[in-house]
Design a protein that fits this description.
Two copies of one chain form a homodimer. By secondary structure, chain A is of the alpha/beta class. Chain A has helices spanning 6-14, 22-40, 48-62, 66-77, 86-102, 163-167, 196-212, 253-264, 317-335, 358-370, 401-411, 430-434, 449-452, 465-484, and strands at residues 105-118, 126-131, 135-137, 139-141, 153-160, 180-183, 217-221, 248-251, 270-274, 278-292, 297-307, 343-350, 376-379, 389-395, 417-418, 439-444. In chain A, strand 5, helix 6 and strand 6 (180-183) form a beta-alpha-beta unit.
């Protein structure tokens, strides 16, 4: 059963037809609510020692610049770190060194195999309008895209205003024969980042719909919210039984505008594409892991972290050096306590997130195999940049909700609202959640993230240290309480 | 003699020691000023017919979207148009077509020779840190730069915090032998754009100072004010008797930050550079010219315009399609009057501005040769983007100042202040000014221009149509009055 929230009750009071009765009704409703809420859901009390420690961690986190200095280190000393490359290896070594130097226990790399995809030499990727108005365009291949035939392709562009229009277009296998498909959906910026999924459908699936209809190439407006002239990278959705045969590339927003204008003039447009993108065969990547071993129930595990890899075109300060800085710095605060909390805290610097959650899937599969999956009591990932946390959501058993409400009351002084119980937990947490692990998320403000997401422009100067500190404070408090409180988030 | 301005008088009143006398002194000073000003400088009265026409042009310009549609046309239908290339040719043809279709007289291209410089294939330009933290950097060759030897160079970086430090560094010919020089000056954003010149010294001259000291390459922080990860292109200052032998490149601001951070760590840094930049030999470019022939003194010429060429990496919406849109749309308003103004208005779409005012110099030399230089009564160029005009400055004979003050009073309703008599007139006007032509300038707000200047990010979406309309209004009024008023701006 869902507990009616105070907001729902207030809303129903506003719909009363007899205005004069409003304040009386309102007072009565508040009374009823107070009683009802008390009766149904006993307040969970965080034990006073734990509460004191949690608040100290929070207040100390707010003053810290440790998260920022970790982000600075990773983006400066490693830079870009695309999964499966030499830079990825260097990032893993950097991670091992960081966790070891900070004093975490059981520091290790858990390796996993990966079919490496690269774009080849980025400078060799060419997209240009060949008619009616010859000019180069700024674009890059999407992850998983195929190369053009040697020498490139040149074809007429078929303009689709949005993904729905492509999806509902004549599905016969030659309806777009020999054409280059262009899809123009725009992404809406939102605090919740919820504009991403709808706009991302074209990145994930346009190649398949185009290929099925005989197209020779795909172009999309980048999935992003800035008008800066950067194309946004990103992986396509590639089923196990099929690999793209045609090139698929993302144009920067101003270049997409250019195509839109030429199309609006009623002109037939031809575009040249040349890429050398493709899969290169199996290589190794890895998740970097460190722990704070629990003092009373070391076999029970709280999973936190961010992902270590980036797109090849980016030093990934926001995506996701910040997630690593926030969670490692928060965990380090807990590591420095006189006594470790009850449960083990496992910090994971996830590998190969950008290319399809490869590290996260490998980790979940390995835990299923070694039988420790059920020991994962709760997990969360920080992976939406460096902006302040504005909302806390969970996805736990109903019996654990009073405890989560108590935690939310301690997050509130950081300006964090308490949301519903439908959290995803974060991308790398998803494979564990699918296998039954409870999750929660400290949700960051999402308005600006997609201005920088998967572009070269995701650099350290976009990160505000004081905003990272607010994140660190929230994570230190939350992680400590998850490990210290004797609450079963899975329920019976 | 310089007329003391009201501001100077007010300022001296504020320095009076006896506060109680302030308001009395102030009142007296105002009286004195009013008398003095009246006595010294009789008010110039714009004839009522001309005044009415000028005001109508201004009010009509404010409502126009013609300037915007010209910018849209040039940036969409031509795109980038680097001097001496095929795209430059297409831009000239576009210009001839535009001026012809609008009904200008004597539309023509005046060709001139140009030693073509190109960077080669932009994708082949590589700059990367090779140690201590290997990673690619975002950079491009500066105009006039030499290529690296085949296979590129790798050398230790010598870090100079600013241009002065390089200038005053040991001048012996091997003091930087085998090194790559890096210069880190930052540019300050300003309404007047006056941060440009000091920051630009490193772009113009660092190559020469480095080469003289035995360096094998030069890197600079881009001359620009944005933290977006774009390098800013721009030409170096190359004397007639000498050509660069070493490569010189500009890093984007975030990449410059990266070098700065590594340097601050006390690390020795090595960088690899590879470029194919260089001069390619003589080609032809051109100035595109159209006129409104004067009704009474057709031999007298008022010169207006913007420049047609861009950097190779940019569609140049701000730099300088906007200057062309503004001045052509303003001239077209005048062209549509029932009667042409007294003097000829010559609209020039200048060629090869970016690579060193080649078109402007060729034009001035040709006018000297054909004996019409002295007929150029006044000139001005619009070339600081698309932001509103905030100040009007002149550089004319003192005897013409009362007329200019009268013009300034008509510009004031557009939010335009009246500045001093030390205007430059604009880059392409400079060679004519050097030969004695009076100039003026409708100065645009410069705070944001250098966020986009000479980068791929200078695209149509950065242009606000209503702001261009304010420019067009000012230019229509100003150009009409310059051509219609019987004022000698050169003086006796």
């Amino acid at each position: 059963m869902k507990i009616p929230t105070q907001l729902t009750l207030l809303k129903s009071s506003f719909t009363l037809k007899h205005k004069p009765f409003f304040s009386l009704s309102f007072g009565l409703l508040l009374l009823v609510f107070a009683f009802y809420s008390n009766a149904e859901e006993p307040m969970f009390e965080i034990p006073s020692d734990a509460l004191e420690t949690a608040r100290e961690l929070r207040d100390e986190g707010l003053k810290s610049s440790h998260a920022y200095s970790i982000v600075k280190g990773l983006t400066t000393e490693v830079g870009p770190r695309f999964a499966g490359t030499e830079q990825d290896k260097r990032a893993q070594e950097w991670g091992v060194e960081l966790l070891t130097e900070l004093g975490f226990a059981n520091v290790r790399i858990e390796e996993f195999p990966l079919n490496l995809w690269t774009r080849g030499n980025p400078g060799d990727e060419v997209v240009e309008i060949s008619s009616p108005f010859p000019q180069p365009l700024v674009a890059l291949s999407l992850g998983g895209s195929a190369a053009t035939p040697e020498g490139g392709i040149e074809a007429e562009v078929v303009f689709f205003s949005n993904f729905d229009a492509l999806e509902s277009f004549d599905a016969s296998e030659d309806s777009l024969s020999g054409k280059i498909v262009y899809v123009n959906d725009r992404m809406i910026a939102a605090q919740t980042a919820e504009g991403y999924s709808p706009a991302n459908r074209k990145r994930l699936n346009a190649w398949r719909l185009a290929e099925d209809r005989g197209a020779v190439g795909v172009l999309i407006r980048s999935v992003g919210t800035s008008n800066n002239r950067f194309p946004h990278a990103g992986v396509m959705r590639i089923p196990e039984d099929r690999s793209p045969k045609i090139p698929a590339m993302a144009l920067s927003a101003p270049d997409a505008d250019q195509l839109e204008r030429i199309n609006a003039m009623g002109e037939t447009m031809k575009v040249k594409m040349q890429t050398y993108a493709g899969y290169r065969g199996e290589v190794t990547s890895g998740n970097v892991i460190g722990e704070i071993v629990g003092s009373e129930a070391p076999e029970e595990i709280v999973v936190i972290g961010g992902h270590l890899d980036t797109w090849d075109n980016s030093t990934g300060a926001l995506d996701d050096a910040s997630g690593i800085g926030i969670t490692v710095a928060a965990a380090k605060q807990i590591l420095d306590l006189p006594e470790a909390p009850r449960r083990t805290i496992r910090v994971i610097l996830w590998g190969a997130e950008e290319v399809g959650l490869i590290g996260a899937r490998a980790y979940a599969a390995a835990r299923e195999k070694d039988g420790t999956l059920a020991n994962h009591v709760i997990g969360s990932e920080s992976d939406l940049g460096a902006a302040p946390v504005w909302r806390y959501r969970t996805n736990v058993a109903e019996s654990a909700l009073p405890a989560m409400a108590a935690v939310a009351r301690e997050l509130a002084p950081l300006g964090i609202l308490h949301g519903n119980n439908e959290s995803s937990g974060g991308p790398d947490i998803f494979p564990l959640k699918e296998k039954g692990m409870p999750v929660a998320r400290l949700e960051q403000q999402g308005m600006k993230m997609f201005e920088f997401h998967h572009t070269p422009n995701d650099t350290l100067d976009k990160v505000v240290s004081s905003e990272l500190a607010q994140n660190q404070a929230a994570w230190a408090l939350w992680t400590y309480l998850m490990a210290e409180l004797d609450v079963d988030f899975r329920g019976k």
